[in-house]
Amino acid sequence: MNSIEKNLRELNKLQNLQQRSHWMNSLHPWGKLLLSVLYIFTVVSFDKYALAPLIVMSVYPIFSFIVGELSFKEGIYRMRLILPLVLFVGVFNPFLDRQIVGYIGELAVSGGVLSMITVMIKGFYSVLAVYILIATTSIDDICYALRVLHFPRIMVIVVMLIYRYFGVMAVEADRIMTAYKLRAPSQNGINYKAWGTLVGQWLLRSMDKAERVYESMLLRGFTGDFRIRKKKVRLSDIFYPVIWIVIFVVIRHSGIFGE
Amino acid sequence: MHTGIHGEILKIEHLSFAYEKEEPVLSDINLMAHDGESIGIIGANGIGKSTLMKLLVGLYLDYEGVLEIAGHPVDKKNLNHVREHIGYVFQDSDSQLFLSTVEDDVAFGPQNYGLSDDEVEKRVVDALEKVHITDLSKKHTYKLSGGEKKLASIATILAMNPDIIIMDEPEAALDPRNRKNLIRIINEINSLKLITSHDLDFIMDTCERTILLDEGRIIADGRSTEILQNESLLTEHGLELPLRLQK
User: Tens of pLDDT along A177-216?
Assistant: First the structure.
């Protein structure tokens, strides 16, 4: 299996997750999007030394992974590209902030080390929150939620179209790679001499396919806007985010878990 | 959107078309078609079948002659009207299905024409019932088999309740069982159908009228049983008798 096919399969797996009939998937996307954004804001807003309340904030991803029947291992695997970047952000803090802020037994802990850990946790939680959102909500639903939140129409349409055409281009790339490899079985990768032709073919085929998709949209009345059916809001769609928001507020502002 | 017109739905008079400064692809095409007819468009590769279909749905507008759908000339001004009356089932179902689930894709057309949510819902249910895939409504489009994709593609068009349905080689890449199923479903559809295909047995099974195109012109227009049994006519224009008639 080549790497493009692997990535396509991974994308398919993610779409499978989004299509599950789990109650968390069927929650109104508006609530889930709002909840994810608020969670990230809350996490990021903690003081750089506020480790204890940050640890308590893990309740949301832990709950979502367990109750939502999501695989933590797969989640980490899917976020493998972004996670190192996020974890790298605070790596220089120990060198910049050497002030001792506490002790673990005999071991002095500097402000830099503590802030590095909190920055890493903040990044980690944010990535998990995004993963929870995309594992339980399809791109169409996320775009619907963005429209409900009055995001600019053009931005939402661009997101949807990029998603569609990304799939089209990936499938074409996979076909070209497979056709090439089947006729060059002893080669590792693609010979540099063939790159130009293959990329050209890929773009031309993708454009052809994209044009057919666009024609199909035009022929069914597309005039530049995706009209998405309104989703009914149930009580659970309101209670779920509200309960979580209350929990976030308590953790953030009550002082029970420290500042 | 079905007009309920029972007469002439499609009118083509002296239609000619050429791609930019090239030789004409279609020359002096004349064709009338009525509600409920099922017409097969046959001919060898590259003789203008797909071009004719694309002209009908207004993808190319710089033609010469008369081209009217449900009384509306196919021009820039009427494009929306025309497209409300005509549906196009692509040969490649992957080009037709672009939304996440079958029901979302089927709802796409009716939503774009501003129907109410209830009406859209009704259209989706009806269309899926017509092609017998109600159980697939929540299924992701990329997970469908080839036969299911074809039926879902037809449902996306039926949901728009068009006067005319164009199908570009609908039987392509279907196994015998799915092909048989498709024939049954096509024969159940009451709108005017224009079906292009190289599978003349399929045309025999689905169309009572056949039009033979060659070099951009209509060579023959008549009952399928007559045209598809005329071996010399078919051979002269690069085709062969349907398999079931070959000895």
Answer: 877 877 776 777 778 878 888 888 888 888 888 888 888 8
Q: Cα-Cα-Cα-Cα dihedral of A176, A178, A182, A188, to 10°? A: 100
Question: Which residues does chain A have within 8 Å of residue B108's beta carbon, measured at their own beta carbons?
Answer: 217, 220, 222
- Supply B229's token pair: 């049994």
How many angstroms separate the Cα of A20 from the Cα of each of A16, A63, B128? 6, 18, 21
CB A35 within 8 A of CB A245: yes
Mutual orientation of helices A3-18 and A153-182 as an angle, nearest 10°? 140
Q: How far apart are CA B207 and CA A129, in angstroms?
A: 56
CA B111 – CA B120 distance, rounded (Å): 6
- A221 and B107 in contact by Cβ < 8 A? no
Q: Pick left, alpha or beta for residue A208 (phi over 0 → left; psi -120 to 50 → alpha; otherwise beta).
A: alpha
Residue A207 burial by Cβ neighbours in a 10 Å radius (0-12, 13-18, 19+): middle
Residue B120 in contact with partner chain A when CB distance is under 8 A: yes
**Stretch 45-64 of chain B: residues touching chain A, C-beta under 8 Å:** 57, 59
Structure-token match 């010469």, residue found: B64
- B101/A212 CB distance under 8 A: no
pTM of the predicted model, to two decimals?
0.75
CB contact under 8 A, B120 and A215: no
Q: What is the value of ipTM here, to two decimals? A: 0.73
Residue B4 near residue B71, CB atoms below 8 Å: no
Contact B131, B185 (CB under 8 A): yes
